[in-house]
Amino acid sequence: MIPLLRGLLVMLAVLTVFYVAVGIYAASLRREALEKAWEAEGRPGDRAAYVAAGMAAYRRSFRRRALILIYILPLGAAAILVYVMNWRD
Amino acid sequence: MWRWIRRGVLLTLALLAISILHYTLPQRDVVRIVGVNTQRMDLGENAFFFSGPAVGSGTSPDGTRDIMFINTIMANGRPMVYRNEDTGWIWPPYFKINSFNLQARASDLISTEANPRWVVVTHYGWRSEFFTIFPNAIRLREVPSPDVTLIPWLNMTILAVLAGLGFLVVRMLAQFRERMVDPLLDAVGDAIGRGQARAEAARREARTLTGRISAWFRSWRGPPRR
Fold it and tell me: Which residue among A29, A78, A87 places its CB closest to the CB of B175?
């Protein structure tokens, strides 16, 4: 049982690093897109406020929340693999 | 010279990555099983290529362990011996915990040359006589004849996913550089530029007598200026 817990902890640690990194990357992409949109719309008002509003909307968006799949997909694949490896003939 | 060192390092890293993939990804052989046994092994420098001591039956302090083996003859007539060990939960990520069941299946599939039963053995790892290391069998499947076409769909999928992840990492690093590092370097470059402009102004001032004298007075207050 202890090795299983250790394996889970290692997986969670690796996935957390990846989750944080991809989270930063996705937010950076969104911010860049917002800055470009602000330019394309003819610079409406304050740039920082425009981007901040867009980022607030992004944090509530489905795309932001879908990043949780970074945890779900590998852990689900591991669970399926445990079954397939050991109990399917 | 540096270019060659760089190439050497890159080549070494590439070979290492390919070796790790080749060792870890599943491969399949068509064999007939001729016997199974459990062998006491004194693991020394080859211990790296066996499961860790926390897995399965454990290892005594002097590195001695009982390991299950599956002895087979491949379709081309050459022998191949697989170990049959649980992999544990971290690496390689097969999560195999049914080695005893697999051993029972292997003994069920034992056949003779006169009346062969062909078995596809899914395994990972290498067989090396020099180092006494064995591939680890992870799955047995009986097939009617040794002439089966095995397409490695799983490996293709895994390699595609890995390539996708590699591409993602490259994109992430590029984005990081574009959005974080380059603006920072620009700011540093601007600061250096401002410093140079100030030095240039001081140099121009120093061409006249009064400028030199006032510069000398200023040097009492600040650090000496060249």
Answer: A29
The model's pTM: 0.77
Report chain B residues touching chain A, CB-CB < 8 A. Answer: 54-55, 88-90, 93-98, 101, 105, 138-139, 168, 171-172, 175-176, 179
Structure ipTM: 0.85
Residues of A whose CB is below 8 A from B139? 85
Do the domain assignments include residue A3?
A: no
DSSP codes joined into one string, chain B: -HHHHHHHHHHHHHHHHHHHHHHHS-EEEEEEEEEEEEEEEE-SGGGGGS--TTSTT---TTSEEEEEEEEEEETTS-EEEEEE----SSSSTT----HHHHHHHHHHTB--SSS--EEEEEEES--BTTTTB-PEEEEEEEESSS------HHHHHHHHHHHHHHHHHHHHHHHHIIIIIHHHHHHHHHHHHHHHHHHHHHHHHTTSHHHHHHHHHHHHHS----
A43 lies in some domain: yes
Is CATH 1.10.10 the right assignment for the domain spanning B28-150?
no
pLDDT in tens, B34-77: 999 998 888 877 887 888 665 655 566 677 888 899 999 999 99
Determine, yes or no, domain membership for A2: no
Q: In chain B, what are the domain boundaries? A: 28-150, 159-221
